[in-house]
């Protein structure tokens, strides 16, 4: 019993030392010149970092379109020609949406323009679908708009 307590105390001490050293970097308090943070030069280099480092990376349009097509191709039983045509429509729509989002117009105007873009995209996609696929596409759109309701019904 005494050995278990000793091992437990030793483990706690080792873990606390490890976490304390991890907080201060590899070679002291922040790895600086004086051991406590690097002084002016290190602070200036941190301030001069590009602001783009803080922005999340944009996902390429092709990746987004690929994920959408992976989901709708089997659900709609698309043939190769339909797949290419719909992928082109979606790519164009996503690029237009990105341009709208960067526009400096008001939030309400952006929402209206995106709704109009969405309707246009749906209309263009429906042009490439047969009657059965149109029904399935409409159901997919409803499911994506109300994901919680559709999952409860299953």
Description:
It is a single chain. The protein has 154 residues and is mainly alpha-helical. The chain has two domains: 2-53, no CATH class; 61-153. The chain has helices at residues 2-23, 39-47, 61-76, 80-102, 107-127, 131-145, 147-153. α3 crosses α4 (80-102). The radius of gyration is 28 Å and the shape is elongated. The mean pLDDT is 77.
Structure summary:
By secondary structure, the chain is an all-alpha fold.
Q: In terms of topology, how is this protein built?
A:
Layout: H1 2-23, H2 39-47, H3 61-76, H4 80-102, H5 107-127, H6 131-145, H7 147-153
Distance separating the two termini: 54 Å
> How many structural units, i.e. domains?
2
The stretches of 5 or more residues where confidence is low (pLDDT under 50) are none
Tally of extended strands? 0
Count of discrete alpha- or pi-helical segments spanning 4 or more residues: 7
Signal peptide: 1-22
Keywords: Signal
Biased composition (Polar residues): 42-52
Region (Disordered): 36-57
Which descriptors apply to this entry?
2 domains; 154 residues; elongated; mainly alpha; single chain
């Amino acid at each position: 019993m005494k050995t278990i307590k000793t091992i437990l105390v030793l483990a706690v001490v080792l873990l606390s030392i490890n976490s304390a050293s991890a907080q201060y970097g590899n070679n002291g308090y922040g790895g600086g010149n004086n051991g406590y943070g690097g002084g002016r030069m290190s602070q200036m280099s941190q301030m001069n970092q590009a602001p783009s480092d803080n922005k999340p990376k944009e996902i390429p349009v092709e990746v987004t379109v690929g994920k959408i097509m992976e989901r709708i191709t089997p659900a709609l039983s698309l043939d190769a020609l339909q797949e290419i045509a719909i992928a082109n429509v979606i790519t164009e729509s996503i690029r237009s949406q990105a341009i709208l989002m960067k526009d400096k117009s008001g939030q309400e105007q952006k929402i209206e323009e995106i709704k109009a873009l969405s309707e246009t995209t749906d209309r263009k996609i429906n042009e490439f679908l047969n009657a059965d696929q149109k029904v399935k596409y409409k159901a997919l759109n409803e499911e994506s708009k109300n994901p919680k309701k559709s999952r409860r019904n299953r």
